[in-house]
Amino acid sequence: MARRGENIYKRKDGRYEGRYVIGKNNNGKTKFGYIFGHQYADVRLRLMEKKIETARRREKDICNCGTLKSWFSYWMESYVLGSVKHSTYQVYETILKKHILPYLGWRDLMSVDRATVYHFVTHLQEKGLGSSSIQGIVRLLQAGIKGAINEGKLKQNPCYRLKLPYTEPKEQRVLTRKEQTKLRNYQGRDSLIIKMGLYTGMRLGEVCALKWTDVNWENHSIAVQRNVQRMKCNTSSKKTTLVLGTTKSNHSCRSLPIPDFIWDELMKHHASNGNQPFIFGRKGYVADPRTIQRRFCQIALRLQIHNVHFHTLRHTFATRMIELGVDIKTISILLGHASVKTTLDFYAHSLLFQQRQAIHSLSSIGV
Known about the structure:
Blueprint: E1 8-10, E2 16-24, E3 30-37, H1 40-63, H2 68-80, H3 86-104, H4 114-126, H5 131-150, H6 177-185, H7 191-200, H8 204-208, E4 215-216, E5 221-224, E6 227-232, E7 240-245, E8 254-257, H9 260-273, H10 289-302, H11 310-323, H12 328-335, H13 340-346, H14 348-364
Antiparallel strand pairs: 1-2, 2-3, 4-5, 5-8, 6-7
Helix pairs in contact: 2-3, 2-5, 7-11, 12-13
């Protein structure tokens, strides 16, 4: 057993073992160095020398840790790249270039304290960013600084338990019932893909990535198993390419029932396009979400439906579910949300409308 305050132990082979901290690994776990000797006093002296040497080296590293920009460049390449999806890496890179580095990049890493972060958050608010966007930016800043702490370059994280401002999320654009009827009755190019989005709540990238092998012909359902999105070819290029990958999260993989009137159209589409791997692709290639988005906006304008995009169909689907009294857990599963809280945060305004209707209904029966 070690003496109080000293990491020196008597081993079974008769030697003494001294242990000292040398840093942390990539997972944040403490790494140790070891001293061995037959004499306790000798191990104790050498252990003290090692502790002093390590402390001096750590202080030197802290003093020479450079700017926040140089650290985040190293952190992104050494820690983040390869550990997250390519699309997530590009999101982080965009947040850094657009928000964090222009305001904080020139600062010495050691000078970024709690007051600096508070000023940064105020700056983001003045730019008109919502609370969810600010929280995402600060989370990335906190993660990068935590990496510097793990390497012994900093002692404290100024973002830890930082109280961030909260603003009510903006109410999402939802189609009126009249507008929804227009889209349901629309017959023409992309009518099926529009109805898929409107009556299943699938994201555009999920609809575009659907394959005929995802269709369950017996149960009249379809499995959401992948996503397609357009991304940069590499971090330094402006050129983009279509990337077929996994869904947004594990919860996004789900099986969705298809309404009968859409199923009939899907059968007709299969008769003419069933030899292709992707339901909405052409010549063996996956459909491009950017192209579908552009064509949808053109169709909406022709139908005199304004200020919409394809994701409006998903919001409309969720809102109609709430209006029909479907429980929030079921809606969350259909949307592929990671938690019910996500669904509640997005559609709180719709739930409030439903609650008001319920109260009015109760008062009308005179109970």
